[in-house]
Every structure is written in C-alpha cells, then in structure tokens.
C-alpha cells in the first residue's frame, strides 16, 4: 500500500494492483523536458504538463514524494472533491504529512458539517459587505503609499499586507496585529520550501499567536454572533463545550488558509494585468467586469495546484486501481478545459500567454 511520505524519504513503487500500468507519468518537481526545474508553479512548461496529463493520464502516477496518484480531469476532480465517502480529507498534502488537525479542512462529515455550521455565519454576505469598506480603505491606503514611493515591490507593498489586514479585521484582532502576522509570514521566506519547517511554523508560531487571542477572548468575550473565537468558545457539541485546542485550530486554519492564497492570487492578478494593458483598459472602462475577471484570475492562476485526498476504499478509475489509504491529489489549474467566463473571454483568448489563453 502507498503511504504519504516526506520528500526524499524514498521512492515508492507502483502498487501490485498496478501491474498493468508500469510507467511513472510525471514528476511534479520537474518543469522542463530535460528534467530541470523551470520557472515554478506558473511556468508554461508546468501548464503544458498538466494539459498532457489530462489528455494521456487521467489518473497519473508519480513516484515522487513517497508516491501518489493525481486526478487530472475536471469531471473527476470535481466529483472526488465532494465525494467525502470515497475520498477522505484529513491527511494533508503529501509533502506536508505532519500538518494535521486544522479545523475544518482536515475533518470529514459529520464532524466537518458541525464546524462548518459554526463557521458559516462569520462569512455570511452581510458580514462581508460590512467588512468591504474597511478592506477597500486598506487597499487604497497601500496603493497610495505605493504611488507616493514611486516604485515598490507589489508583493511586499500590497499583496501581503492587504490580506493580513483583512484577516485581522475578520478575526477582530487588536490594532496592529496585522503587522505581527506579516512579520510571521515573512519568516516563511527565510524557511523557503522546507516542509518540516513550514509545518512547524504553521502549527507552532500561528497556534501560539492564536492561543494568546483565544485566552483574551476567554477573559473578555466579544459578541459571539460577530466574533469567531467568542462564538466558537460559546458553542457546545453534544452538550460539551468545544475545547480550547479546537478553537485554536480554527484560528490556525484561518490564518494558514486565508493569507498565502489571497496574497498569491493578488500578485498573479497584478502580474497578468501588468502584462496586458488592453485588459487593464477594458476593466478600467467597465468596472462591472471586475467580479468575472477576478474569478478568471483565480481559475487561470490558482494559488493552490493540488488538493489532497485519501481513498477510504479501493477506487477503480480510468483503468487504474487506487488502493485504500493511498495518496491522491486533485489537480486544480485548468486554463483551457472548462468554459471561460463569457464577458472577459474575448480579450483573453486573443492573447498568446504562457497558459495558452
Ligand atoms: C484566492 C483565495 C483562496 C483560494 C483560491 C482558496 C482555495 C481553497 C480550496 C481549494 C479549498 C478546499 C480545500 C479542500 O477541499 O481540501 C479551501 C478551503 C478552505 N479555505 Fe480557502 N481559499 C482562498 C481564500 C481563503 C480565505 C481568505 C480564507 C479565510 C479567511 C479561507 C479559508 C478556508 C477554509 C476555512 C477552508 C476549509 C473549508 C472546509 O473544510 O469546509 N480560504 N480554500
């Protein structure tokens, strides 16, 4: 049976059930045909590789990272993502096997449903609408500082601070807490892509930070309908209060899930707009196109390329057998496979971009 492993922990071999398929389909670390790394997650080679896999290997096998399968086609990915009986959440992506316990992402029904019911009200549309003017004001403040400076790195000056401030606002963190968050995020740069250290940072540093906030909420609760931590602390499961550890893991999940995703998406959108003055002009001229454009930016350059799932039972798909407990990733970027948004399509299809849009 396959198991999730850490990079470099050894190569898995194709499980026995796979004697009919004896090839390794891809190497996720390799961007170029000659075996070297290209320009990383946004490289044209990587997107070409995804397209090749969709065509030739709907269930692709890689012997890297301990060995894992990747579902590459849209229909299979969307079906598996919601098929919680056959494809279980809870084992983090194979490069990060220790990153367990975040709530709700690592849970399955019925526990997952309970926590989603608890958390959904804090993301309800009216609440988001109330936050919007504040977040817009933050955005303007950072853009004005950028204009004042004349020149700046967009990631440092805008893409990272804005989501840190938005998260701090969402979680009712005290004034200035976003700068502490930013300082912690900057520590990721020093760590680089070393999964164990990333795990330690997320679970250690973030949970320490959140534990302090949760302790404050226990001492001085805020309105439980408006404050996620106070609301969670006031909730009971089957007559038992949620544990402080569970509340902390909710906070860790918010920070871990909510910052890099949005910072990276903002930077990809800025990069795309910088490369495409026509698209910039079109969006400036018709601001009603913005929501569709944002959807498109995230679809074309998603900050996450793979989701992890674990088959609860043997799954047969496209002639391959996925053993129960094997590591399965669901490949997300799909620049060409699903219909694009009709309002912005014309501009983008006429462009020759690395993703072929
Ligand atoms: C462009 C921005 C974002 C993208 C592309 C994104 C993407 C995703 C994806 C693909 C998942 C599903 C993971 C899975 O099924 O295994 C997910 C889950 C989640 N994300 Fe995000 N996310 C973004 C921003 C955020 C933000 C800002 C927050 C919080 C403030 C957040 C909180 C969560 C949570 C709590 C979950 C778990 C949901 C559950 O298990 O029901 N995400 N996100």
From TrEMBL:
<dbReference type="InterPro" id="IPR002397">
    <property type="entry name" value="Cyt_P450_B"/>
</dbReference>
<dbReference type="Pfam" id="PF00067">
    <property type="entry name" value="p450"/>
</dbReference>
<feature type="compositionally biased region" description="Basic and acidic residues">
    <location>
        <begin position="29"/>
        <end position="40"/>
    </location>
</feature>
<dbReference type="InterPro" id="IPR036396">
    <property type="entry name" value="Cyt_P450_sf"/>
</dbReference>
<protein>
    <recommendedName>
        <fullName>Cytochrome P450</fullName>
    </recommendedName>
</protein>
<dbReference type="InterPro" id="IPR001128">
    <property type="entry name" value="Cyt_P450"/>
</dbReference>
<comment type="similarity">
    <text>Belongs to the cytochrome P450 family.</text>
</comment>
<feature type="region of interest" description="Disordered">
    <location>
        <begin position="1"/>
        <end position="40"/>
    </location>
</feature>
């Amino acid at each position: 049976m396959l198991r999730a492993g850490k990079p470099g922990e050894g190569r898995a071999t194709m499980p026995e059930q796979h004697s009919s398929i004896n090839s390794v389909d891809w190497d996720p670390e390799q961007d170029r045909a000659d075996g070297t790394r290209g320009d990383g997650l946004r490289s044209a080679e990587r997107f070409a590789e995804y397209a090749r896999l969709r065509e030739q290997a709907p269930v692709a096998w890689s012997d890297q990272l301990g060995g894992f399968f990747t579902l590459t086609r849209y229909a299979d990915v969307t079906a598996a993502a919601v098929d919680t009986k056959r494809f279980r959440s809870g084992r983090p992506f194979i490069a990060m096997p220790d990153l367990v316990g975040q709530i709700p992402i690592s849970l399955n029904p019925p526990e997952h449903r309970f926590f989603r019911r608890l958390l959904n009200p804090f993301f309800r549309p009216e609440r988001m609408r109330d936050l919007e003017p504040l977040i817009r004001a933050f955005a303007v403040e950072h853009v004005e500082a950028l204009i004042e400076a004349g020149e700046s790195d967009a990631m440092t000056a805008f893409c990272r601070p804005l989501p840190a401030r938005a998260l701090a606002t969402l979680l009712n963190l005290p004034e200035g807490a976003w700068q502490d968050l930013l300082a912690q995020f900057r520590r990721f740069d020093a760590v680089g892509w070393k999964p164990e250290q990333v795990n330690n940072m997320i679970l250690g540093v973030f949970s320490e930070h959140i534990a302090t906030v949760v302790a404050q909420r226990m001492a001085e609760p805020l309105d439980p309908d408006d404050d996620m931590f106070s609301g969670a602390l006031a909730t009971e499961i089957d007559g038992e209060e949620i544990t402080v550890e569970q509340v902390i893991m909710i906070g860790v999940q918010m920070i871990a899930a909510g910052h890099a995703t949005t910072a990276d998406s903002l930077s990809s959108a800025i990069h795309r707009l910088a490369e495409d003055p026509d698209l910039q002009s079109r969006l400036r001229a018709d601001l009603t196109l913005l929501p569709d454009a944002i959807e498109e930016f995230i679809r074309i350059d998603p900050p996450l390329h793979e989701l992890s799932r674990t088959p609860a039972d043997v799954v047969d798909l496209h002639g391959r057998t996925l053993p129960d407990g094997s590591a399965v990733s669901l490949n997300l970027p799909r620049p060409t496979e699903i219909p694009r948004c009709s309002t912005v399509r014309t501009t983008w299809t006429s462009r020759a971009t690395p993703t072929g849009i």
